[in-house]
Amino acid sequence: MQLQTGNFYWPTTFSEHPSYPPLNEDITCDVVIIGGGSSGAQCAHYLSETGLDVVIVDKRKVGEGSTLTNTALIQYLGDKMLFELVNSFGEKTAIAHTKLCEAAINDIENAAHSLDIPSDFIRRDSLYFASYKEDIEKLEKEYFYLNKHGFQATLLEEREIKEKYGFSKYKALYTFNDGEINPFRFNHALIADAVKKGVRMYEHTRINGKKLTKDAAICSTENGYSITAKKVIFAAGYENLEFKKEKNGLLLSSYAVVTNQLTDFSHWHKRTLIWETARPYIYMRTTKDNRIIIGGLDDDTTNPEDRDSKIIYRKNKLIKECQRLFPELDIYPEYYLGAFYGGTHDGLPIIGEYEEYPNCYFLMAYGDNGLVYSMALAKILKEVIVAGSHPAMSIYSNSRRKTS
Asked: Are 272 and 126 in contact (CB under 8 A)?
């Protein structure tokens, strides 16, 4: 799958990163993780604490799949709004999911601050503004459930938004204690720490065959070696869909730019994460070295050539959207890209278990909060593998059902 095309920013922030050898022998282990990107790294992070013999393989180098294009806004709310999840799954399930995402942000922060490789995690608040007057009601519904269940949030009126940001919007939901991170450095930090604890990592190792039984899985590599494991975690990001089609999964295209470095963010209140109620929406964040990441303008293109043909137009439009909010900023794109982006039809990520894949789990952290979802799902999977179950598995199971 041609995941992305463009001029990528994150690798420039960590050029001398660790590297790992390809697999060159037959091996056995307790768990093999297929994918060394964010999802695989977060699974390895948790499983490295269990005493299990864990192996990770990736057909590329660590973090060179969709992690390269992850804009890494760390939020507990998603593009499927909380009140919509309540309508689809019931209040109990929707709130449990949101609480798990909130806890995952804490786990990301704790991990980021404890690892040897710094990943520039910082807490940021979020501004979620009404793109249209009719969206005010959506934000009020969202705030109702957030306030009811103890999440830190408030509603800002038009005057307050103008005072804090300089631009005018009808109303906005302001949530506290979200965050931002360098996903490429975080990916490498998690893998390096897991390897230090005994996890084996193999780059340039493509899985091209498998034999699955009730007792074990034998994964064959392109170079003619085998990995025999008791459990398999497919953590290959959007390329999981090449291993197993999932009717609830969908593939879209998204676009992003990273601007030049700036010196003055005085009009940008607390350098909050910014997004909007429009669909498709625009979102923005800043970086440690004082750039702006602007992303969005998603469409349903699944052809890489079609996606890539739109990159220049989308790049210019994203810059213009930022300038509409902050006309005083002298910005231009230094990095820009088009990439495939995975979501689900019902708005929740997936832990897939399928009858034809015994002893296998598919971690599909699809949605705009992929890093957060991966952290939450990886933690759940650790308990499932070690203890046999976790109460939240029913929330994310591929066999879940809507309530309406």
From this structure: yes
pTM confidence score? 0.97
Instruction: Write a three-state SS string for 265-331.
Output: CCCCHHHCEEEECCCCCEEEEECCCCCEEEEEEEECCCCHHHHHHCHHHHHHHHHHHHHHHCCCCCC
Q: Write b or e for each residue in 262-271: b if 16 or more Cβ atoms lie within 10 A of its Cβ, otherwise e.
A: beeeeebbeb
In sequence order, which residues have a C-beta less than 8 Å from that of residue 127 and are 6 or more positions away?
Answer: 156, 161, 165, 172, 173, 174, 269, 272, 273, 274, 275
Each residue of 330-378: pLDDT tens digit? 999 999 999 998 899 999 999 999 999 999 999 999 998 999 999 999 9
Cα–Cα distance, 129 to 85 (Å, whole number): 19
How far, in Å, CA of 244 to CA of 226, rounded? 20
Counting runs of H as helices and runs of E as strands, what totals does the chain give?
Answer: 11, 18
Residue 312 phi/psi, 5-degree rounding, is: -65, -45
Enter the tokens of residue 217.
């899985």
Alpha-carbon torsion angle 329, 334, 338, 340, nearest 10: -90
CB 337 within 8 A of CB 67: no
119's CB contacts (< 8 A; 6+ apart) are 112, 181, 182, 183, 185, 186, 189
In this structure, the dihedral spanned by the alpha carbons of residues 160, 164, 167 and 173, taken in order and rounded to 10 degrees, is -60
Helix, strand, coil content of the chain in percent (nearest 5): 35, 30, 35
Contact yes or no for 168/18 (Cβ under 8 A): no
How many whole angstroms separate alpha carbon 158 and alpha carbon 171?
5
Which among 174, 180, 158 has a CA at the least distance from the CA of 108? 180
Residues 6+ apart with CB under 8 A from 321: 282, 294
> Rounded CA gap, 362 and 350, in Å?
8
Beta carbons of 48 and 194 less than 8 angstroms apart:
yes
Q: Name beta bridge partners: 257.
A: 294, 336
